[in-house]
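Exercise 7. Given the components listed, write out the predicted structure of the assembled complex. Treat all entries as one system.
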Amino acid sequence: MKILIVDDHPVVRAGLKALLAGEAEVAGEAATGEEAVAMAAALHPDVVLMDLQLGPGIDGVEATRRVLALPRPPRVLILTTYETDTDIVSAVAAGASGYLLKDAPPEELFRAVRAAAAGQSAMSPPVVARLARRVREPGSELSARETEILQLLAEGLTNDQLARRLFISRATVKTHLVHIYAKLGVDSRTAAVTTAVERRLIRLD
Amino acid sequence: MKILIVDDHPVVRAGLKALLAGEAEVAGEAATGEEAVAMAAALHPDVVLMDLQLGPGIDGVEATRRVLALPRPPRVLILTTYETDTDIVSAVAAGASGYLLKDAPPEELFRAVRAAAAGQSAMSPPVVARLARRVREPGSELSARETEILQLLAEGLTNDQLARRLFISRATVKTHLVHIYAKLGVDSRTAAVTTAVERRLIRLD
DNA sequence: GCGGCCATCAACCATTGGGTTGATCCTCCG
DNA sequence: CGGAGGATCAACCCAATGGTTGATGGCCGC
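Answer.
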């Protein structure tokens, strides 16, 4: 079985290579998303172990999409540090066969790689738990408009500036904020921004 | 030269072990701070490679302090993902001989380990740059108290909660906030938090 | 010892923000 | 067709926030 490792940290690449040495053949290593797509096309691995955070360039989700768009695509296993709702959902939506956390024990990694190669899907228990909670807890997703407002909130805008920026009234801004607070389980704009950043609903840059 | 690796991620431990194989003898691996102190006492390594985020139990800074309090203490090299001001300062204050980032190339890691073993200090270029900016930019420095308040701001606390948490009056909280806003060039708590996160003065976790 | 910086507190005031209720209009979906 | 959910707006109230001025005591360094 041939594996392609995609991670921007040399230390992690070396670790995965060392751990997988007895289990499978590590056909190559990529440090960026672009590199990952090129190497997947050239090497035809069975499984791609993909990090989501890849530094500059395309991220792991986009790289997953492109890898799976190749002819005779490999299976893609996400291996990342975070387990945010949006990360998980977007990775699965992109077609990933599994989602593992980096602090998982090596045995779990082996099992997941074997499962992926066999065409099955594999999730870390914490990831499964998070997805389950999403199913139990439906209307908790933010709308596009709400996410847009959150992003501007993070720039420190007042409700008034927000209203002018979006060509809506202050009342509407406040209504959106109330909904956002309810969905995020907070009761202030600052808390909304920090939890949104933690859950990767928005990004600071 | 004997090295002790301290990191809560099995993948990272394996990676460091693999990378260092040709350079030094990896005498042991620890997954928690407590384990790290015990193994440092038992194995007498020359250098301890210490992560700052260690999951439950004592963190890397406290573990560093305790390791350096041992008789015939080893050198401690911090190897972590983040480069926040407070992390760097507290690690150096705890007596760390160096501060590396996990995305550093392996050669830099080798150099730093050799330097640490020789009693010299070693810092990643981004870390050095951050410390240098601290020196160049004196007046805009946040005090320890102000950083503490910022961190709590990021949790979404109100001024009143802040006051109770820190056993000071609301008036004092407001004074601190005014100073923080001035130093960061903002005029709201939300903007203060986001720019502080962007400048890596605090971290969200 | 004096100036500078920090931490602490007070009182005032205008603006902003959060909570509530209720409403209209739209689109999507069963 | 009817309901669900999203986006829009209004009026009300109270609490929280930000801006200002001014004051005290501690500590450090020149």
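Discussion: The longest helix of chain A spans residues 170-184. Chain A has two domains: 2-135, 144-198.
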